[in-house]
Amino acid sequence: MIPWTERPSRWRGPLDLLAGAYPSFLLGRRPPRGVVPVFHFHEATPEGLAPYLDALVAKGYHTLGRSEFLAVLEGGETPEGAVLLTFDDAYTSAWTVVAPLLAERGLRAITFAIPGRVSREEGCRPRWGDAGWEGRGEDRGEEPFARWDELRALEAEGVVAVESHSYAHARVPVGPALEGESWTAAELEALPLLSRPVVREEDRLRPGDAREEGRPRHPLHSRFSRVPAWIPAPDGSADAGRRETAEEQRAAIAGDIRACRDSLRRELGREPALFCFPWTVAGPVAVEEVRAAGYRAAFADFFPGRRYYHPRADRYRLMRLKHEWIPRLPAL
After folding, report:
1. Do 109 and 63 touch, CB atoms closer than 8 A?
2. In this predicted model, what pLDDT tens digit does every residue of 242-258 receive, in sequence order?
3. Do the Cβ atoms of 317 and 302 come closer than 8 Å?
4. Which H or E run includes 82?
5. What is the C-alpha to C-alpha distance for residues 148 and 115, in angstroms, rounded to an integer?
6. What is the Cα 22 distance to its own chain's centre?
7. Model confidence over 42-62: pLDDT tens digits?
8. Strand, helix or coil at 232?
9. DSSP SS3 for 19
């Protein structure tokens, strides 16, 4: 059974509020000394992102870069008015939209990349402000994720740092196939790209599509859950299979985490330091393996927890706020 803290729930917001999870600035107070609000985004467009960035600048806030945030985590002084901006999945817009809009305002951010999904095309595409930039629906087009050349260019610019979001960003079967149900092309196409079943083809990953129509439809959940995966029978029988052992679960989780680390190390030429769990799901084994892989901190979701960084925070259980909360920050 999937723990309630790993599932969407209408009760979670009220429980977080009662547990003191939300920072005081949501009530109009200035963030206390030592607190860093951390906001997360996903896809971005100029018209969607710019108002949030302009609100930060107008209210007197500044953003921490990767090295500055790591210094704060490891005991350094927290600058007054500091926030951290994060962009999950390293969509194409991290290169084409996010970086140029941040640079124009003197801001910085972190994007969490998925090496198994990074585009293998070469070169850097035009972006906002460049001739030839098309700027419509690029995160949902044929090449939704940034290229390695673009991620390396982001690193070189120093505006958007690239960190880890797992190797595959996979949802895996966690139980027998639903009785009498199989995937249809329409159902697969309707799912968000990163919520579809992951199909491995040689050394590549792709989201499930019409080619998977008719296959048994298993309940899916994050690879990093505490819930063991379901291993279907080799003959594909819908009602046959077994749960993975604790040893198999740990090996699969550790393999993904280390593959992500090794890919970023190889492609970017430096050691990644921050890990962001997909869907913020992180069971105990996953947290242990991120720590063992040498990461210096990780973002996830826990109850009870605090949806901001504070000096007593567990560095491997850091929580964030949705970017929609940015306008609630009081002026400094």
Report:
1. yes
2. 999 999 999 999 999 99
3. yes
4. strand 82-88
5. 9
6. 20
7. 999 999 999 999 999 999 999
8. strand
9. coil
